[in-house]
Specification:
Layout lengths: L3 E4 L2 H5 L9 E9 L2 E3 L3 E3 L8 E3 L1 E8 L7 E8 H8 L8 E12 L4 E7 L4 E5 L8 E3 L12 E10 L4 E6 L4 E6 L3
Antiparallel strand pairs: 1-6, 2-3, 2-6, 2-8, 4-5, 6-7, 7-12, 8-9, 8-10, 9-13, 10-12, 11-12, 13-14
């Protein structure tokens, strides 16, 4: 199966500019181990829609697109959300509820489109079997964007519960994939 892997533009994710056409992504909501991080960033929509609130800006996102494959994401959080995430206990079977969106630019139609999204939040668990760094918070603020101050959080999340739907596509065509056991 093809992998959906994107390295995303952090400065563009925080401060979107229409004259730059690079992929951007955002975490719309995120709850880890019962701690809900606040959507405290106001993001300009690449699709030209009104601004929206986000928990963080994605810098990397990878999913091998298999129903049981984990999702790997690195998200830049505000310092307030990083402090909240720092208090989350580590361990096995830590529940995660999250929703992400990735936008890419179509140079033919000259517009952005959603290349990865869900209509509802996804349910998963921190995948402690994948790597010892399945949940890690940087000890220092990131340097790509100085304002607002932000800190990188890396997560590896495997599906939990019933099958969930994810949309992946281009501006012309979107396919729906399943994440989680059928």
């Amino acid at each position: 199966m093809p992998t959906f892997a994107r390295t995303l533009d952090i400065p563009q994710g925080f401060s979107f500019k229409r004259d730059k056409q690079t992929p951007v992504g955002h975490v719309l909501n995120l709850t880890i181990g019962g701690t809900t991080l606040r959507p405290d960033l106001t993001i300009v929509s690449p699709e030209g829609l009104p601004s929206f609130a986000a928990v963080g800006v994605l810098s990397k996102f990878t999913w091998d697109t298999g129903a049981t494959d984990p999702m790997n994401l690195t998200v830049q959080l505000s310092t307030a959300n990083a402090q909240a995430a720092g208090g989350i206990p580590s361990g096995t079977n830590v529940a995660v509820v999250f929703q992400v969106v990735v936008f890419e630019y179509d140079p033919i139609k000259k517009k952005y489109f959603k290349s990865f999204f869900q209509n509802a939040s996804l349910n998963g668990l921190i995948d402690n079997t994948a790597s010892p760094t399945s949940f890690s918070l940087a000890s220092q603020p990131s340097t790509e964007v100085a304002n607002p101050a932000n800190v990188a959080l890396k997560l590896v999340i495997r599906p939990q519960g019933a099958a969930q739907t994810i949309s992946i596509g281009t501006d012309a065509k979107t396919i729906v994939k399943t994440w989680g056991p059928a």
